[in-house]
Specification:
Chain lengths: 183, 596, 295
Amino acid sequence: MRREKEKKSRLFKWAAICFAVVFSFFLADFLMGEPRVPERAVGSIPFDHALHGDSIGLDCAACHTGSRASANAFMPSKADCMDCHRLPLTENPGIETLDSVLAKADDRPWSHKRHLPDHVVFHHGVHAAAGVACADCHGRGYMQNRYGAELFNMQSCLKCHRGETFKEKGFKPAATYCAACHR
Amino acid sequence: MFKYLMLAGLALFLPGLYALGYSIFEGPSAWMVDSRTFWGTPISLFVFWIGLAHAGTLLSAIFLALEIKLDRRTALIAELSTLVCLVFAGIFPLMHLGVVENFYMVMPLLDARGNFANVGSPLVWDFCCIAVYALLSLVFFMTHLKTREIPALDKYRKPMAWLLFPLVLWVHTVVSLDFATTFVPQWRGAFFPVYFIAGAIFSGLALMNLLLCSEGYRVRLLERLQLIFSWFMCAIWVWDLMLKGSLCTSAFIFAGVLPQFRMIAVIRENKWGRIALSLSVLIGLFLERLYIVSPDFGSCAASPLNWIDWGLIAFSVGGFVLLFFGIRRYLNWKMEGAGSYFGEVDGTDLADAEQQELEKEGARGIAKPRKGFYIQPWASEEYHVLRLPLLVGFAFALVYSIWVLSQSVFANVEFSFANIVPLLYPVIALVTTVTLYVRAYFVEQAFTLSRHEKWASVIVLVLVAACAGAFFAGGSSQNSTNTIDSQSIGVDAPVSQSHARLLWNTRCATCHGVDGKFNEKFVREFYPVPQKLDVQRLDSLGTDSLVKVILNGRANMNAYAGRLTPSEALGLVNYMQTLAKQATESAKEGDNDSAR
Amino acid sequence: MGMDRREFIKSCSLVAVMGLLFGCRKIPLEELAGDLPSLKRFEDEVKLALSQAKKSLDLVKIPTPGALKIPGASTLNRFGMAIDLDSCDGCGKCILACNLENNVPLVPNEDAARGRFMHWVDMRGSAPFMCAHCGNAPCERVCPTGAANHTPDGLSAMMYKRCTGSRFCGANCPVQARKFNFNDAQKLGLARQFNREVPLRDKGVMEKCSLCLHRLQNDRLKFKTSLTVGETAEEWRGRGVKTACAEACPKNAIIFGNWLDEKSPLVKLTKNRVLYAPRELADLDPSVVFMRGRR
């Protein structure tokens, strides 16, 4: 009985040590690594992606005008919103609030600090031309107004460039040398 | 004596610490470097101290392996001096980096970004070799200390010595390769490894003799070795002179000519004479290191060292004195059985110590070969102890090299197995040691750890894992200084068809559809139906008015003037016409098909 | 001494910590300028560099560069330059153009007086000299972190964020083409981002001619964006890209192009010329060569 107890306590000790070692590795990794992308503030205009996506036949590029041809995908300007919202679009009473907010809004309501570091060159247009869909990288979280950047780190970029992920999509082999994406 | 030593050490250490802090803050501009040499005092000091570290291992480990009798006290002093020298040898390569916080990038392991160090670089070999060397020397030292309490540990000293023996030669060869694998003409030479090792052992012997003088006794064997090595160094210097026509005269005088005075009995029998001889060797070899590292000096006696350089030198010398004598004193004083921890033998010559060792070993019953009796290496006791751990070590090294060679970062690099070889022995030695001691503790139960020591080892293990995690993560990137905004209008330049297509799909397709008809999903539910864009209508309106529509807007379409340039609008109109033509052609084909 | 050992050790460690901290405090070498340095200062520095004659290069004949011999090398692109010594008159406009294009920082006065500039292009004798982007680069071999590496299309690239500042690459360049950021140029008000396409470098990293990597990158990205998925694609050859120095030369003495593209001006204009490289680099397969005389 006592020997069993001793065995159990030894096992427990070893399990605890293993756990402590593995935990400290991951804790250090978490603390020292890239900070998580901060959830961005909603901004002055209450925008809901769920109302503006595939369900109404809108492509991402309609508002994020650079996502097919430019490096930056850009955020829509007020003029881009007004292309459609020049007319009251639904009978929903909320539309009046939206219209009045839009009337008072800045020309560029969604300016924000770029999250990607300056030494990284990322070109949306090249990826779109290669057949990468917006949802492949940004996920479907945009429906909940999430940027999807939790997935973005150098390792995830490299994995796709090396052909280790998205195998079913059959992308052309992409450049993996440093100077392809860095300056 | 101890008090004076510590005060002298402090007097050197404190200003040195200030110089160190200043250097780390200011970076490489603080000490004397220029665009031709790039390395300066810190690297000279690094090579100097790592050379001194080797002598400790030479004396304790290599003598043990080769069965040259050395008393316990001398061996332990040698091992302790190795450890203290390694502390300083480790500080200098770190502080000389331009971006110190990126030092983790030199580790030859995969990090969180999928990057790998360039394992073909001598600095990576350096990093690994010295780290492993420090760890193994520490383990060796602690084993030796503990043999007083746990005689069973003595079984592991010789196997460890055999592991350390090639490691010493390996580490300093790698340090010499830092220089010899480059293009700098003064650093060329296949003899560099031999040169550096000889210099290391020579300076280390001088340090040992100095330390023994402070202990109050002497070991004649070491002094004779020092003389012999001075001849060896002179031979190498003369060879270098004939080969390259350069000689560091002050180094030659201090470390080549003056040590010959040992042959005069008056000097060697006097303690201060011996101290002077050893100091002369150390000074000469340091000057020689300065001369090697900064070959454009000219005469190294006229080297322009500024106060930072002197501060760094003082830091290392003062720090060594403080650390070495402090630890020595602490071990003597705090540990049980004060005064005999280092096997204090009172001012005897080697012959007496030899006798005592032989008697002690006879008592423990370890078989010692008689003179002239040859034992096959694999019949020896050391080999039996090391067999399994070495196998594990070799297996691990094999797996590691295969893993490194398969890394995709090396896809564009001329990279072969030969580039990894310098890394392999440290890996083997590390894994072998770990296996050896794990087996000794768990399987053979050769030693036990006190509760205190158990907690300490768990804490160390956790800290090592945390360091590994930090190295793996590799720090976070600097934030961008740019702002994401809406798209600004471009420069007014002619637009290619493919670009027009992209523009259409972005700006127009929401209502007008990708094919130029209309986007059924969007238009029916949310927006008034746009005009049909067929060929007749487009032709009747004409290109100019169409461009105006795009820029100035129309009934249900906002103006795009501030967002699209006139050339872009023109490109869109042309693309529109192409789409319309494609639509009529496919409609015709459709009619033909249905007619058939 | 009146105190006991414990107090002595305590006071010693206190002094030690203070010494270290004291040494770490910022000693301002030059007060931060506040304003960015003027264009004139950059121009004056180039003039100063030109006036300090540097040793001429020792040139030897080399064959025309061909494809790179590294694994994974592109068979279509190998970018390089040829500098026509018959046309070059040593005016130095290339140096100024490169400095402004790449945001090369100024140096403090004492470094300038000793001729230690950060310019990527140096005038050696009367020939402009920059990194030769060797196919078998000695600098790339010894970089411990892999910050100095070779692209498949022939550039010897320098990744500033991966640099730990060991300066091994600089020590190993036989012609001292590499420059080290001894100073924090931004803090000292010596740097100005004339060109937003090129990042400013931190203190402690090496830099050198990048063959205007940013221009090549932008061109390549633009080219790839306009490709349609599924259509047969022409490969990108970098046609039409010019480095800043090549653009600025009034005599068109610097020719940038693609050694593997018969349509490239580099190939066309070097066809009948004798090509040279510095003696130390001749065996290292340089991409940037000199030319003189006709074959």
